[in-house]
Write a structure and sequence with these properties.
The structure is a single chain. By secondary structure, this protein is α/β, with parallel strands linked by helices. It has helices at 2-7, 13-26, 45-53, 67-81, 96-106, 121-127, 147-154, 180-190, 247-258, 266-277, 281-302, 330-341, 369-374, 384-390, 392-407, and strands spanning 32-33, 90-93, 110-115, 131-136, 162-167, 193-197, 220-225, 238-241, 307-308, 317-318, 321-322, 343-344, 346-347, 360-363. The chain has 2 domains: 2-43 and 281-407, Aspartate Aminotransferase, domain 1 (Alpha-Beta Complex); 45-277, Aspartate Aminotransferase, domain 2 (3-Layer(aba) Sandwich). The strands form 4 sheets. The protein has a 7-stranded mixed beta sheet, sandwiched between helices. The protein has a 3-stranded antiparallel beta sheet with strand order 10-14-13. Strands 1-12 form a two-stranded parallel sheet. α14 (384-390) crosses α15. It starts with a helix and ends with a helix.
């Protein structure tokens, strides 16, 4: 029974840690909010101005989304991906999370999830009554599956439908997938559909960022939105770009959308046209410059014989592994760290890892992004002095975490 399934689904751990952190702060406790992944930057002014200008837009819009917005997104994506997308390939949703949920409901088959995976993929698969096939990954491969890893699962039953979730830059690891071509070969060979979650793609620290859609565009649904690169998480606007070859899925999503959210907020859609049509490269470059500098600061100060960690490559996450035997589960470890030291992390078990592995996700966004951005020029090199000045809680929180790791 679906209702029984729902009873066993827990609230999203990312949203839960945010509420817990806020509650502890209200009690007067100093909390280093390294658990919740939210952009520290303000929405660009021209996009905000456009929202204000369109506040009077009060009509229901098309289920698929405002045509002018879809055209802007199609043009923007076509240039980025070097593939010809049209407005009809785009569907707008109240955040990409909702569109993923609708996809999971209508998809009939097995969901391929690399471990680690974002916390909502698995619960949504359960609600969609799809079987989850976890795929183990390794630090040496940036925590992404190899083509052989994926093929090994599929060879157990080649007659099933498969939907692979690929998230690069990755939440929770902050890593970028480097073996896209070999994954695309397997996808084409076995007719796998890929959901490419690219919500952090604009925040890649590398210049030549590649998407799986560059290698198998006919099999790939691109998922992204305004929340991370535009600092507009609370605006709840995401989108799918779906190739013509997957039109049946797009039409099914539209049907479900008509019976659930109907259409996305009209003022937000009008404002989003500006987000995708105007040049925001200076804003994005400053965001990346700040995030890269802070991420590398955290990495350099945490890596030790007590903590194994990969250098961040995009987004705003790191995934440290603590080498200790003081705790039986990563949840127990993170609870101890929050209650005794005020550092909020999310346990690796929330992302698909075994509970006894002491992995955790660290979000390095606990700073005033607007203030930081106002005080730097373009791509100027950001030193530790600027980080100490404009991101003091990051510095203090990292020092607290480093000290804690040596004491356990």
């Amino acid at each position: 029974m679906l209702k029984n399934i729902i009873k066993n689904i827990k609230p999203s751990s990312t949203l839960r840690i945010n509420e817990i952190s806020k509650g502890l702060e209200k009690e007067g406790k100093k909390i280093f909010k390294f658990g919740f992944g939210q952009s520290p930057f303000q929405v660009p002014k021209d996009v905000v101005d456009e929202l204000k200008k369109n506040a009077s837009q009060n009509k229901y819009l098309s289920i698929q989304g405002l045509r002018e917005l879809r055209e802007a997104i199609a043009k923007y994506t076509s240039i980025k991906k070097e593939y010809n997308y049209k407005s009809e390939n785009v569907i707008i949703g109240p955040g990409s999370k909702e569109l993923m949920f609708l996809l999971q409901i209508l998809f009939d088959g097995d969901i391929l999830l690399p471990a680690p995976s974002w916390v909502s993929y698995a619960p949504q698969a359960i609600l969609g009554r799809n079987k989850i096939q976890w795929i183990e990954t390794s630090r040496d491969n940036n925590w992404f599956p190899t083509g052989k890893d994926i093929e090994k699962v599929i060879l157990k039953n080649k007659n099933k439908n498969y939907l692979l979730f690929l998230n690069s830059p990755n939440n929770p690891s902050g890593q970028i997938c480097k073996n896209l071509e070999e994954i695309s070969l397997v996808a084409n060979k076995y007719n796998i559909i890929i959901l490419s979650d690219e919500i952090y793609s604009e925040l890649s620290f590398e210049r030549d960022f590649k998407s799986i859609s560059n290698f198998c565009p006919k099999k790939t649904i691109i998922s992204t939105g305004l929340s991370k690169w535009c600092g507009a998480g609370g605006w709840r606007l995401g989108h799918f770009v779906i190739p013509n070859e997957l039109n049946s899925l797009k039409d099914a999503i539209k049907t479900l959308a008509s019976e659930t959210f109907s259409s996305v907020s009209a003022p937000t859609q009008y404002a989003a046209i500006t987000a995708y049509s105007y040049d925001h490269s200076d804003y994005i470059n400053k965001s990346k410059n700040i995030l890269k500098a802070i991420g590398e600061f955290v990495y350099e100060n945490l890596k030790s014989n007590k903590i194994i960690i990969n250098k961040p490559q995009g987004g705003f996450y790191l995934m440290p592994e603590f080498l200790n035997k003081s705790f039986s589960t990563s949840s127990e470890m993170c609870d101890n760290l929050l209650k005794k030291n005020g550092v909020a992390l999310l346990p690796g078990s929330d992302f698909g890892f075994e509970e006894n592995r002491m992995l955790a996700r660290l979000s390095f966004t606990d700073f005033n992004g607007q203030e930081f951005m106002k005080n730097i020029q373009g791509n100027e090199k950001i030193g530790n002095d600027l980080i100490l000045k404009f991101a003091p809680k990051i510095v203090e929180g990292v020092n607290t975490l480093k000290k804690w790791s040596k004491s356990i």
